[in-house]
């Protein structure tokens, strides 16, 4: 049964869940104490380095956390390849290592197996999930509930931003912070949605017929670029590919021409500043640039979607919001239903 057959409007779940995010983020900040308790347990057992395990949108949240841990905590951090455990049976020495497993459902068999194996090998394991009753929460020694509530659209929106904020609150608390930079994140998120509505509509109108998109960002915003490509691919079926701005200049820029749309995530800070050379290069090759972020007004672009400025380390929570709306709008404009992308299910189980 399609959404039209059931009387449900295409995209109504995704639209509602995007709109729920300001209140949801504010509520998570109010529950910071629960996350700080987990952080105290981590701080009491200082790790040699950290590892992150995730898939899909959660993998992009883990990429964000990688930057947070390396920059804010000064710890070497890597992204786990689950197949090293699930397919090859590797048993690395993980004593004094922090493993954070990130999964919205907490039900992916590979992440569960990685977490169980890491705990046996001596790691301090932490699950970050939207499902407190999940096997992943039970398998990990410590657990963080992101508290996003039920998400009905296949495309992750509120669970993604809630995961970002939960990871920030966790890592900030490990370093002794009290979440000062996100104290008003709910209000900022509401402004980010309200103030970008017209610009998002212009972007939908301009890019509704595009077929090839490159997304790019640097630093913390690289995670936003990766999540943007996934959202555009799964909702609008676009050929979307994400690159770090630095990697884009190391070869892929040669494939960019006037038929390429480039979504550049550029927020105030060192990462956004490093994007200037990247955008000079792609505009020089004729690409049509859509700039999104608090520094979007300072770069060459055909369309700019500016969001409120915040400290660079929490910018990804805000800059992804209008991009979610863009993915929703493009999917509807192209005749699709982003609540039910073809061939996809809400929970993907891999090993």
TrEMBL record:
PROSITE patterns: SIS. CDD domains: SIS_GlmS_GlmD_1, SIS_GlmS_GlmD_2. The keyword DNA repair does not apply. GO terms for biological process: carbohydrate derivative metabolic process. It comes from the Bacteria. Residues 1-20 are annotated as: Disordered. Residues 38-180, 203-341 form the SIS domain. Keywords: Repeat. One of its GO terms (molecular function) is carbohydrate derivative binding. The keyword Thylakoid does not apply. Transmembrane segments: none annotated. InterPro entries: GlmS/AgaS_SIS, GlmS/FrlB_SIS, SIS_dom, SIS_dom_sf. This is Glutamine--fructose-6-phosphate transaminase. It comes from Amycolatopsis marina. The lineage of its organism: Bacteria, Bacillati, Actinomycetota, Actinomycetes, Pseudonocardiales.
């Amino acid at each position: 049964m399609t959404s039209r057959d059931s009387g449900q409007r295409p995209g109504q779940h995704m639209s509602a869940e995007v709109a729920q995010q300001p209140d949801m983020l504010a509520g998570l900040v109010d529950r910071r104490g629960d996350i700080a308790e987990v952080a105290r347990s981590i701080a009491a057992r200082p790790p040699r380095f950290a590892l992150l395990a995730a898939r899909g949108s959660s993998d992009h949240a883990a990429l964000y956390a990688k930057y947070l841990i390396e920059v804010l905590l000064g710890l070497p951090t890597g992204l786990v390849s689950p197949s090293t455990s699930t397919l090859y049976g590797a048993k690395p020495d993980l004593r004094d290592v922090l493993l954070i497993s990130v999964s919205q459902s907490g039900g992916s068999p590979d992440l569960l197996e990685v977490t169980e194996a890491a705990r046996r090998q001596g790691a301090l394991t932490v699950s970050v999930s939207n499902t407190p009753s999940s096997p992943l929460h039970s398998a990990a020694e410590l657990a963080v509930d992101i508290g996003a509530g039920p998400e009905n659209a296949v495309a992750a929106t509120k669970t993604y931003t809630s995961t970002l904020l939960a990871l920030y609150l966790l890592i900030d608390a490990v370093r002794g912070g009290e979440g000062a930079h996100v104290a008003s994140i709910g209000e900022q998120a509401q402004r980010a949605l309200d103030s970008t509505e017209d610009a998002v509509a212009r972007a939908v109108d301009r890019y509704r017929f595009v077929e090839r998109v490159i997304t790019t960002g640097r630093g913390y915003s690289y995670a936003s670029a990766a999540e943007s490509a996934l959202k555009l691919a799964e909702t609008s079926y676009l050929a979307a590919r994400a690159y770090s701005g630095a990697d884009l200049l190391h070869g892929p820029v040669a494939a960019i021409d006037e038929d390429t749309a480039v979504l550049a995530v550029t927020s105030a800070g060192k990462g956004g500043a490093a994007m200037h050379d990247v955008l000079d290069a792609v505009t020089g090759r004729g690409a049509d640039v859509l700039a999104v972020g608090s520094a979007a007004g300072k770069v060459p672009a055909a369309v700019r979607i500016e969001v409120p400025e915040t400290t660079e380390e929490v910018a990804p929570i805000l800059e992804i919001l209008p991009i979610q709306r863009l993915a929703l709008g493009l999917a509807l404009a192209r005749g699709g239903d982003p609540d039910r992308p073809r061939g996809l299910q809400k929970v993907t189980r891999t090993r």
